[in-house]
Write a structure and sequence with these properties.
The complex is a heterotrimer of chains A (309), B (286) and C (358). Chain A has 309 residues and is mainly alpha-helical. Chain A is built from 12 helices and 2 strands, in the order ααααββαααααααα. Classes of the chains: A mainly alpha (309), B mainly alpha (286), C alpha/beta (358).
C-alpha cells in the first residue's frame, strides 16, 4: 500500500513539473510576442539611455534562447521580476493578494460541496418527483447565468433593495457573503447535477440489489454502498470545479471590488505591469495543477480497482 | 426484454420520456430563431435606434415606448440588445467552430498515431487546462488586441480540449475495430480511413460537445465584454451593457438586468435543446 | 388489484398447516419502461416446501426473474405500474407488494443470489466488510446484535462452509480480485448468513464455466441438506434443473405453463412448450449439444393478447388456442400448488384433471 502510494506521488510530481514547464514557456512566449518588452516595463518618461539601460538590466538584449534560460532560472528561485506599479518583487505582490482570492474560492467550494452532495442525493432518491424537477431547474439556471450577472443581481437584491450587505469592498464578514454566494452558485449547480446523475447510476447497479437483500442500516447503505461508489467522479468534478472557481473569482472580484489576484491581474494587464502578470499566471496555474494532482491521488486511493500507471 | 426491464426497474422506472419535444423546447427554438433573426437583421432595422442618444429620455424604466427602458444617455435598450446579438453570436458560433477544428485535429492525431504524438498532445491538453480560462483569455487579448478574429481564436483556444478528448476516444475505438486493419491491408490511405470511418462516428459525440461548448462560449464572451476586453464600444454588446449599467443599479436596474436576462435565456435555450439532442442521439451518453 | 390496506401484513390463516416456506398467490407485475408498460408477470401462483428445491425454467423474457424480484420486494410504485397478489413467508402474508423501502427487502427470511456475482458485490469494500455488514445488520434468530470481531469469525466460518480455500485471506480481498466462482460462493455465504428460510438463486451458474457450475450446485445442495432451507432455482438450463430440482415450474410469457415433479416433467412433459424446450436444450448432464431452436419469438409483453401465449409457435395449435387462454389444469393429484399441472387446451391435458383452475 505504501509502495503504491509512493509511486503514485512520484508520478504526479513528474506530471506537475512537465505541465508547469509548458505553462512557463507559453507565458514567456506570450510576453515576447507583445512587442518590444522594454517599452512595456519602462516608465512613460524614460529617455533613450534609460531604455537601453533597462534593456540590459532585464537581459532583453540577449538572444531569445538565452533569455529563456534566464527566465526559467529566475522563476525557479521565485524571481518573476519587479512590479513597477508597486516597486516590489512581483511575487510578493501576488502572494499578498492570493489569500483573498483563495478565501473566496475555498469558501465557495465548501458551500457547494455541503449543499450539492446531499441535495443531489435527495434528488436522485426522489427522482422525477416535484422536488427533483424544481431543483434540477434551479441548477440549470445556475449554470446558464454568467457569474458576473449573478453577482450584480445579488447586489441589486441584497445591497440595493434590502440594504443587508455592502455593495463592494472587503474587510468584514458582511463583505464576504455576496462574493462567496455568487461564486458558489455555478459550482453548486454543476456539483448537484453531477451528484444526482452519479447516484442514479450507482442505484442502477446490480450490487445495490444485493445490498437491499442484506438489509443494512440505512446510513451505512447510503454512505458505504452508494456514495462511496459515486464519490470518484464527484471528487474529480469537484477538483475541476475549483479551477472554474478560480476563473470565476477573477470576474467576481471585479464585480465586488474584492482585492484578490483577479483584480490585480486585470489592473496589471491594463497597466502593462508584465512582471505581475507573469507571476499571477504562473502561480495560479501551479495552484491548480497541484490541486489536480492531489485529487488524482485521492481518487486512485478511493477506488481499489484502479491500477498504478 | 426481461434484461431490459430488470435494469430499468432497478433504477426506479422511466416515468418521463425525455425524447418528447414538448412545448418548452418549442419555446426555446423560437427564442433562438428570434436571436438569429436579430443577428441577421438587427443592425439594419435597429442600428440607428441603438445609437441614438437622447438626453431627454434618460433612464426611463421599461414601458410601452421603450420595452426595456433607456440607458444613461437615453438610448433604447431593447434596440441595443437586438443589435448586440450579432457580434455575440458571430463570436460564439465561429469560436465553437475554431475550437472544434483545433480539437478534432489534435484528437485525431493523438488517437491515430498514438505513442509519442499522443503523449505530446495529452501534455498540451494538461498545459492548457492548467490556465484558468478567463486569465488565459485576458492574457491573450492583452497581447493581441480585441479584434473579432482574435476573440474568435481566443474563444476557440479556451475550449478545444473537450473536442480533442472526445475525438481521441472515438479514434481509439474505431481503430480497434478489425475492419480498419482490413481496410488498411487493402491499401487505404490514412486520409481515406479518417474520412470514411472516423468522421461518421464522431459527428454525434462532437455535436453533443458543441452544444455544451456553445453555452460556455456565450457566457465567456459576455464575461469578456463585461470586463471591457471583448466587443468594444460603440458596438453594443450584452456584457458591455451590463458593465456600463453598474453605476446606475440603484436608479435604473433595467440597464443591467435586461441584457443579463437575454444572455441567460439564450444560454438556457441552447443548453436545454442540447440536452434534448443528446437524449435523441444516444440516451446513454452522459 | 387488491385494495391498499393500512396494515399490509396479517398472519396467514394456514401457514403451519400448509407447511410451506413460501407461498405466492396470483402475482401480477406490470413494469414501466421506455418502450411502454411491460406485462412481465401475469397471474402466477406457486409454493415451496421447507427443504425443497423448486426449479423455475423459461427463456429470457418469460418473467421468471421479474417474479422473484417482485417477491423480494424490489419494485416500487415508480418501477411497477401494477404489482398485485400476495406473498406469504414465515407465517406472514403481504398483500401490498410494492416496495415500501428502497433500501431494504421484504423479509429477512428471503435471500437472493444473482447471475453476475462479481458485479453483485460492492466493488469498493472488501469481502470481509460486506459480510460483517450483513452479519451485524441482521438480528440473528437468537436475538441481539453481533460485535465486529465475532462477526468476522462467523464470516470466516461461512466462507469455509461454501468451500472457499483460505477464508481468512479472502476476507481482505476485493470482489474484482476474485474469480466468478469465488464471488458466487461469497454471495451464497452472505445470503445464508442470517439463516433465511428461502434462498432465491437467479441463474447463479449461467456465467460460470462447467466445472465451476457443478461445484456451486454442490455447495447449494449441501447447504440444503444441512439447514433444510428451501431454494428457488431459476435457470434456462435444463441440465442445472435436472441436477438439483425436486419440482419444476415452466414459465412462458409471464405465466406458468407447466408444473410438476422433476421426473414427471423430464420423462413425460405435457405442454408443447416444455416439450419443445426439452427437445432443443443441451443436456450437460447427458453431454448433449443443442439440436434445434423453437421457431418464432416470445410475444411482445407490452401488448395484451387473447388466447394462449404460445399459440403462434405451437406445433399442436388448435382454433381454441388463439381465442381463449387455457387455465392451469391438473394432470395428477395432490395439493393445488404442488400437483402436476399444465395450461393447455390439448385433450390429453384438459381431460386428465377436473379443471380446478389455478
Amino acid at each position: 500500500m505504501m509502495h503504491r502510494l509512493a509511486v503514485l506521488i512520484l508520478a504526479k510530481l513528474l506530471r506537475i513539473v512537465v505541465v508547469m514547464a509548458g505553462v512557463v514557456t507559453i507565458v514567456f512566449l506570450l510576453l515576447r510576442l507583445s512587442g518590444d518588452p522594454v517599452s512595456a516595463v519602462a516608465p512613460p518618461d524614460a529617455t533613450v539611455d534609460d531604455i537601453a539601460a533597462l534593456r540590459k538590466a532585464y537581459g532583453f538584449d540577449q538572444p531569445l534562447h538565452i533569455q529563456y534560460v534566464q527566465f526559467i532560472g529566475n522563476i525557479l528561485v521565485g524571481d518573476f521580476g519587479t512590479s513597477f506599479q508597486y516597486s516590489r518583487p512581483a511575487i510578493s505582490v501576488v502572494m499578498s493578494r492570493v489569500g483573498a482570492t483563495m478565501t473566496l474560492a475555498v469558501l465557495a467550494m465548501a458551500i457547494s460541496i455541503v449543499i450539492a452532495i446531499p441535495v443531489g442525493f435527495i434528488c436522485a432518491r426522489y427522482r422525477n418527483r416535484p422536488f427533483d424537477h424544481a431543483l434540477v431547474g434551479f441548477a440549470v439556471l445556475g449554470n446558464t447565468a454568467p457569474t458576473f450577472f449573478v453577482g450584480i443581481v445579488l447586489i441589486l437584491i441584497f445591497s440595493v433593495w434590502l440594504r443587508l450587505t455592502p455593495t463592494s469592498g472587503s474587510g468584514s464578514f458582511a463583505h464576504l457573503i455576496l462574493p462567496v454566494a455568487t461564486l458558489a452558485v455555478a459550482s453548486t449547480a454543476s456539483l448537484l447535477r453531477m451528484t444526482r446523475s452519479e447516484v442514479l447510476e450507482v442505484l442502477g447497479k446490480p450490487f445495490v440489489r444485493t445490498a437491499r437483500a442484506q438489509r443494512l442500516p440505512r446510513i451505512r447503505f447510503i454512505l458505504a454502498y452508494v456514495l462511496k461508489n459515486a464519490a470518484i467522479p464527484i471528487v474529480t468534478l469537484a477538483g475541476l470545479q475549483f479551477g472554474v472557481l478560480l476563473s470565476g473569482a477573477i470576474v467576481t472580484e471585479t464585480v465586488f471590488g474584492w482585492p484578490g489576484i483577479g483584480t490585480l491581474a486585470l489592473e496589471a494587464i491594463s497597466r502593462r505591469d508584465y512582471a505581475v502578470v507573469q507571476a499571477v499566471v504562473c502561480i495560479t496555474a501551479f495552484i491548480f495543477v497541484a490541486l489536480n494532482a492531489v485529487i488524482d491521488v485521492v481518487y486512485q486511493l478511493l477506488d481499489p480497482r484502479i491500477a498504478v500507471e | 426484454m426481461s434484461g431490459v426491464s430488470l435494469d430499468i426497474a432497478a433504477q426506479g422506472g422511466e416515468a418521463t420520456s425525455s425524447r418528447r419535444f414538448g412545448p418548452l423546447n418549442a419555446f426555446f427554438v423560437a427564442w433562438l430563431l428570434l436571436m438569429l433573426a436579430a443577428a441577421l437583421f438587427g443592425p439594419v432595422l435597429f442600428g440607428d435606434q441603438a445609437m441614438q442618444q437622447s438626453l431627454g429620455t434618460r433612464l426611463k424604466p421599461p414601458g410601452a415606448a421603450h420595452w426595456m427602458g433607456t440607458d444613461q444617455v437615453g438610448r433604447d435598450i431593447f434596440a441595443r440588445v437586438i443589435v448586440g446579438a450579432r457580434p455575440t453570436l458571430v463570436i460564439a458560433l465561429f469560436g465553437v467552430l475554431a475550437g472544434m477544428l483545433l480539437g478534432t485535429v489534435t484528437g485525431t492525431l493523438a488517437g491515430y498515431f498514438g505513442g509519442a504524438v499522443d503523449r505530446v498532445c495529452m501534455a498540451l491538453v494538461d498545459v492548457k487546462l492548467a490556465f484558468p480560462t478567463i486569465l488565459f483569455a485576458i492574457g491573450v487579448i492583452a497581447v493581441f488586441g480585441t479584434s473579432t478574429t482574435i476573440l474568435v481564436i481566443v474563444v476557440g483556444l479556451t475550449g478545444w480540449v473537450t473536442y480533442a478528448r472526445v475525438q481521441r476516444s472515438v479514434v481509439l475505438k474505431v481503430n480497434a475495430q478489425t475492419y480498419i486493419e482490413a481496410s488498411r491491408a487493402v491499401g487505404s490511405s490514412h486520409l481515406r480511413v479518417v474520412c470514411r470511418h472516423i468522421i461518421p462516428n464522431s459527428l454525434s459525440p462532437l455535436l453533443v460537445v458543441a452544444s455544451i461548448d456553445l453555452v460556455r462560449v456565450i457566457l465567456l464572451e459576455a464575461s469578456l465584454s463585461f470586463l471591457g476586453l471583448g466587443i468594444q464600444p460603440p458596438t453594443p454588446s450584452w456584457g458591455g451593457m451590463i458593465n456600463s449599467g453598474r453605476s446606475y443599479l440603484e436608479t435604473a436596474w433595467w440597464i443591467c438586468v435586461c441584457p443579463g436576462l437575454v444572455i441567460m435565456m439564450t444560454a438556457l435555450s441552447i443548453s436545454r435543446l442540447g440536452d434534448w439532442l443528446r437524449d435523441v442521439l444516444d440516451p446513454d451518453l452522459s | 388489484m387488491q385494495p391498499a390496506r393500512t396494515d399490509s401484513r396479517r398472519p396467514d390463516p394456514a401457514p403451519v398447516a400448509s407447511g410451506y416456506s413460501l407461498i405466492v398467490r396470483d402475482l401480477h407485475v406490470h413494469l414501466r419502461s421506455r418502450h411502454g408498460t411491460v406485462h412481465a408477470v401475469n397471474g402466477i401462483s406457486f409454493a415451496v416446501k421447507p427443504g425443497e428445491i423448486l426449479g423455475i425454467v423459461g427463456e429470457s423474457g418469460s418473467g421468471k426473474s421479474v417474479a422473484m424480484l417482485a417477491v423480494m420486494g424490489f419494485f416500487d410504485r415508480e418501477a411497477a405500474r401494477l404489482i398485485s397478489g400476495s406473498v406469504t413467508v414465515g407465517g406472514t402474508e403481504w398483500r401490498e407488494l410494492a416496495a415500501p423501502d428502497p433500501w431494504s427487502s421484504r423479509s429477512p427470511e428471503l435471500a437472493i443470489i444473482f447471475q453476475d456475482a462479481v458485479s453483485s458485490l460492492n466493488p469498493v469494500l472488501t469481502v470481509g466488510s460486506q459480510m460483517t455488514d450483513t452479519l451485524m445488520a441482521r438480528q440473528p434468530k437468537s436475538g441481539g446484535g453481533m460485535p465486529r470481531p465475532a462477526a468476522r469469525r462467523r464470516a470466516a466460518e461461512l466462507l469455509d462452509l461454501v468451500r472457499i480455500p483460505d477464508a481468512a485471506r479472502c476476507l481482505d480481498l476485493y470482489p474484482h480480485q476474485l474469480s466468478g466462482g469465488m464471488c458466487q460462493r461469497v454471495m451464497i455465504a452472505m445470503a445464508i448468513s442470517a439463516d433465511p428460510s428461502v434462498l432465491i438463486a437467479d441463474e447463479p451458474t449461467t456465467a460460470l464455466d462447467v466445472t465451476v457450475q457443478s461445484q456451486i450446485l454442490d455447495v447449494l445442495l449441501e447447504i440444503r441438506q444441512r439447514t433444510g432451507m428451501s431454494i428457488v432455482m431459476i435457470s434456462h438450463d435444463f441440465g442445472v434443473i435436472a441436477r438439483v430440482a425436486d419440482r419444476v415450474q415452466v414459465m412462458y410469457a409471464g405465466r406458468i405453463v407447466e408444473r410438476g415433479g422433476v421426473d414427471d416433467i423430464f420423462s413425460r412433459p405435457q405442454h408443447p412448450y416444455t416439450r419443445a424446450l426439452l427437445a432443443c436444450s443441451p443436456r450437460i448432464d447427458r453431454g448433449e449439444q443443442a439440436s434445434q431452436i423453437i421457431p418464432g419469438a416470445p410475444p411482445d409483453m407490452r401488448l395484451a393478447f387473447a388466447g394462449c401465449p404460445f399459440a403462434a409457435r405451437c406445433a399442436e395449435v388448435m382454433g381454441v388456442c388463439r381465442r381463449d387462454e387455457p387455465a392451469l389444469r391438473p394432470v395428477g393429484s395432490g395439493a393445488v400448488l404442488e400437483r402436476y399441472a399444465a395450461s393447455c387446451w390439448l385433450p390429453r391435458i384438459a381431460d386428465a384433471g377436473n379443471g380446478d383452475g389455478r
